[in-house]
């Protein structure tokens, strides 16, 4: 050692005096190397002379002792004894192993030679028996075999004990590593003491612990030696060398009662095994983590070991210099020296002074620099590449969490969070955990940080069970999977999401999953997953199905797509003081759809009565209820009924569907008490009263807006009339005698569920029209579908567009003819799903061709739909909708001059169908009113599908929308002329909070699709025809959406300055019609007349909202069975008021009892008139749609003289060139 205690003294067993040097470092003693060779002639003068040297040296280097420990009388150093014990052990064992191998080799050679001689003798002596069996040749062989077996068993046992394949082996390996680290820590503690000192084993606690550790190491060394196959290589292993130079010195310490730090620092080399230990404990699993720990352990163990060697030689000095050139360095100063040396910094404040130390540094710089230059950058790279979001989710007590995965981008996440965390939701106490295999970019990361209290992100994949465990998927309330709506291959995207569902369900079958699907036909694959159960809350939101369903409803009631999209999207109220159309539109936008249990005060009342009470008194609009069937064995005990009519009475615990501005308003329906709130006029004062106990129905809470209160009963998901079990006591429900008589078992008019019109499969060649044939076929009141696509385009599923237009709650003569204009190659691929629907035609061509558009009479269509199947990977997102935008602008720029057709019809005695009020084809069936005359394409009703929301700015050139305006605030969307699939993103959060909302939306827009029908389509990929039975005909009895005009008809008196509330109550009481919105001219609020025909949507106006004559009213209309029995089911209106909006002033007439009795007579008289006209016309009769023999009959062209009323209308709407619409043929229904 290089120093001693400042108060150290002498005195020992021999009585010789020991002296201290005054300049020795405190807490260290210096051992005099010369005392072992010189006698007592050394004097104090020589000591003082030696102290004059600049370096702190001593002439009498001593061993620190205590009074109780007798040391050597001369203070002799015994370091060589410790080192000799290690060297003798190492080289002695190595010599024995080599000697054993040599003897064994010689013995083997000798036995091999002798064995050949004995074998030859045995063969010559005929050791075989006569029967061919061999006798035991030598009894020694059995002994050798037994000996070998015993040795092998011991070896195998030792191998099992030290291997990590068994629990015992893993415990032993981990224990050895932990004890090695403990021995290293003891070395760190002892490094503050002198290198060599006298210590009493019985009083030194650290020496006792170290002794116990090394005894264990010795036993473990023995096990390793027994289990080793190659003893020589085992003897030369690093771990063996560590044991040689650390275990024997401990026993020497006990024997000599002294301690020498020596080479105990070699225990640091055990750190190299740290990676293996962590793998044994199943902590390290990834290659990057294993590699990182390996690099760190090698680097740190080398660093600490080298520091220990420098600490030893610098504090001891060089032996050939009689240990006179030592310096006092602590171990941690040596660690610092090695680091600055490896990093080539070399400050020079600490350096090696001994020759051994400097020689070691020379070689260490070569290896240490190389290691530092290679290991450190790789370690930094691994740490830098380590997943920033690779932790695990820690569940918060009392707070649920959901997992969101799939297509995680800034747009999808921002849209989702904006709706999910909207302030209108009632107490959203849910944490959102995003899981994605790609780390978020800076913008997305900033979004997560802004919502850090409710949002967490983890990097991983749901296909990896380890990552699912990290996000605690088993305790999650639900898992939501987002789809990439803009991908080039929708089928591949759906396949990816289906695989995610399979992985999640395989990990935890009970988890509720809500996933987005792009293609309708891919929903069938979810049914193949055994644990997929829509009755338990699993839902698939098919974007194509809902998108095309919304567009189809716009064909029946223009603007409905906008209204429905706003209802399930959370929008904040934006107040505008100016009297503009935006003011009324935004007031309606703030409404959303909610569910709430009805108060017991409503029990026993009919649905219209409760609906009126809620609207007038509670300021709530109830549009549907959840009906609980009394038949417990019914497959669909709970069903959603939309505007069921006055036959149905409210039961206890009925769930109502409301349109309101926030969740707190809907609570009024639950808190309402007739005794307490009957005289209250302010609905805000309707709160929980104390006169009755609030009833929580079954196990469900009254509010359905939080995840705890979700409705998960499978029956809720059925369509309103999917089961014929509920038979009304209303004669309208049961088919009339005429209908029963017409039930022909050989004729199939509807599909097997009775929900859609159906016809026999048709070949596509039979429905293809050439341009000339289309021009000769006078089309009017039809739907033109402009489709862009080619043979390589992804299918968009046109069946979802056609099915709502072929719902069975329309009569056959009310069905709008559908004409597809597009590539025949693409339509051939779609035709397999369309060939069972009647009234469908195809015009091969392009929507950009004006000749094709004129051939299909686009100026006389009820709606023009523009779709595109070309999802190209274009860097510029604005170009994704280029075809749809060009087609829309092309149509709007067209001019029409059709006066010649009407003039010729008038000269021949024809009456334009648009002017014939007695024909149901000219009444606002489905809510679409006829355009008496259109001279410009701007007035053609168009709805355009957009992929990119920002492209909506290109549709209307005359609007003043800012390019950064949100989609729902733009004029095309408010008017119902544009629809983007992005609005459906809100359905994810709406479905999570209340899965009944998705069922209601799906029922409204799909025309009656049910899970049973989806399963049937999954099996056959087509609708199956069914026979007309009372049960299937009963399924037709469901309400539909329509638009009513206020210009004339039964509500004309309310059209001019009346209140919306009065209209609501009158329609509900008189006709069971449920009004829920207004489609108003954009400039109706202006005092001056305007030529603009654009309209916008007003959702759920208040009671006192003032009406104008040009308003169109959105309503839910009951199905009328008798309407199909007569062509004159819609009465003629006697009002002659004119429309300033260029719309015909007719209203869907509501048949009363009187006009029902007159129908057969009127029909009979008209049939006679038709027969007379047919005889006059001769060949004028034309059979239209010859490809539909089951449903179509010869169409009779009606001939009437032009009335004065019609002449006035023509004069009003014709332009300078006297435009007159062409003739539309009229078709009877079966």
UniProtKB/TrEMBL annotation:
Q: Where is the composition biased (Low complexity)?
A: 34-52, 1127-1152
Q: Where in the cell is it found?
A: Cell membrane
Q: Name one GO molecular function term.
A: large conductance calcium-activated potassium channel activity
Where exactly are the transmembrane stretches of this chain? 78-100, 171-189, 209-227, 292-313, 328-347, 359-377
Q: Where is the RCK N-terminal domain?
A: 399-541, 780-924
Q: Which GO terms describe its cellular component?
A: monoatomic ion channel complex; postsynaptic membrane
Comp. bias regions, Basic and acidic residues: 1161-1170
Which Pfam family is one of those matched by this entry?
A: Ion_trans
- How is it placed in the membrane, per its record? Multi-pass membrane protein
Give the catalytic activity: K(+)(in) = K(+)(out)
Any GO BP = vasodilation
Sequence segments annotated as region (Disordered): 1-55, 703-728, 1127-1195
Q: Main site of residence?
A: membrane
- InterPro entries referenced in this protein's UniProt entry, alphabetically: Ion_trans_dom, K_chnl_BK_asu, K_chnl_Slo-like, NAD(P)-bd_dom_sf, RCK_N, Slowpoke-like_C
Which spans does this entry mark as compositional bias, Gly residues? 1-16
Keyword vocabulary terms for this entry: Calcium, Cell membrane, Ion channel, Ion transport, Lipoprotein, Magnesium, Membrane, Metal-binding, Palmitate, Phosphoprotein, Potassium, Potassium channel, Potassium transport, Transmembrane, Transmembrane helix, Transport, Voltage-gated channel
Regarding protein family, the annotation reads: Belongs to the potassium channel family. Calcium-activated (TC 1.A.1.3) subfamily. KCa1.1/KCNMA1 sub-subfamily.
Instruction: Tell me what this protein is called.
Output: Calcium-activated potassium channel subunit alpha-1
